[in-house]
Design goal:
Blueprint lengths: L1 H12 L6 H27 L27 H31 L4 H26 L4 H25 L5 E5 L3 H27 L19 H28 L4 H26 L4 H24 L1 E5 L12
Antiparallel strand pairs: 1-2
Helix pairs in contact: 2-3, 2-5, 2-9, 3-4, 4-5, 5-6, 5-9, 6-7, 6-9, 7-8, 8-9
Length: 326
């Protein structure tokens, strides 16, 4: 194991020294890839292609690639197999790339830890995806698969925010302490919102396998009741954000925090609108996909906002914190 790690370090030393701008570019790519796999996963679900490849890691027991099958339409195979390829070639590649980049740049341990989480969690997520297929799309396994993706988007977004900060610096409060605590509380509420959303989906019309939807395990509970709980949790989240905005407006805050808070409100407003329209139009497939994309955006923007409220900045010549990094 030590020999493999030494080989890895030698490979890293041969890479060009990446600028902070390049590091942020790779971190953004990693973030977008983590969000993309959640969105393509929703496409698999709403098109009923979850068992387009009925086994794992191969598509069929005797074939890695999709093969013509009377009982499995080719388009379901293409969608499910395509989702697996995205996981392998995009998510894995970007996860490994950001590790190589921040290692070569000799970044601080905190950033290295966040970077290393991505490839390891991606591997774990791939196994969970296989369990999802092998268990016949059990609703609670599908839900866990989605929630892990949400956590990975948070980690990738936090890494993206941290990469821009100087390693040789000191952390300062870029917003009132109360505002940051309220954002932390909003994260807890968002977690409950996501769990409620997963449960609503488990009871909804999109079973994930259109070839044999009756065989799929579904949650037999009232969708209106679940949707009400989901909506109330969203209302609590929005209320917390409004209070955060009040605290930020009253206290000393950086321009970066004020700008990011506006972005969070815009994303949450769009996501809420999609959710309302989705409910009253019978949960059309396209809006489900957009709703998942919106959820990933809310998670990422909230993570970045949270980090921006306590920034690492350069020390001035007198040893005191300098102005916020650009």
């Amino acid at each position: 194991m030590i020999g493999v790690y030494q080989l890895f370090l030698r490979l890293v030393d041969r890479l060009p020294f990446p600028s902070v701008k390049a590091q942020r570019g790779f971190a953004l790519a990693a973030l977008l890839s983590q969000a993309l796999i959640a969105v393509t996963g929703s496409v698999v679900r709403v098109t009923g292609s979850g068992l387009g490849c009925p086994t794992w890691p191969k598509c069929f027991d005797d074939s890695l690639l999709p093969i013509p099958q009377d009982e499995v339409p080719w388009w379901h195979q293409a969608i499910e197999f395509g989702n697996r390829q995205i996981a392998v070639w995009i998510v894995v590649t970007t996860a490994i790339a950001i590790v190589l980049v921040v290692t070569r740049a000799r970044r601080r341990r905190e950033i290295l830890v966040y970077a290393w989480i991505l490839p390891f969690s991606t591997f774990a997520q791939g196994i969970l995806g296989g369990v999802t297929v092998l268990t016949g799309l059990r609703w609670w396994v599908v839900g866990a698969h989605m929630l892990v993706s949400c956590a990975m988007v948070w980690i990738a977004a936090t890494l993206y925010a941290k990469v821009r900060e100087p390693d040789d610096g000191v952390e300062i409060e870029a917003a009132p302490a109360g505002a940051r605590r309220m954002v932390a509380l909003s994260v807890v509420v968002v977690a409950f919102v996501l769990v409620a959303g997963v449960v609503v989906t488990a009871a909804g019309p999109h079973a994930g396998d259109r070839t044999n939807p009756k065989a799929i395990d579904r949650l037999d509970v009232s969708i209106p009741a679940l949707s009400l709980i989901h909506g109330l949790l969203v209302a609590v989240y929005v209320g917390i954000l409004i209070w955060v905005a009040v605290l930020v407006a009253r206290g000393p805050s950086s321009e970066a925090v004020r700008r990011r808070l506006k972005i969070v409100f815009a994303v949450v407003a769009a996501q809420s609108l999609i959710g309302v329209v989705q409910y009253f139009t019978g949960v059309p497939a396209l809006l489900v996909v957009l709703h998942v994309a919106g959820a990933m955006s809310v998670i990422a923007e909230t993570a970045i906002l949270y980090r921006l409220m306590r920034e690492r900045v350069l020390r001035g010549s007198d040893g005191t914190p300098d102005k916020l990094a650009a």
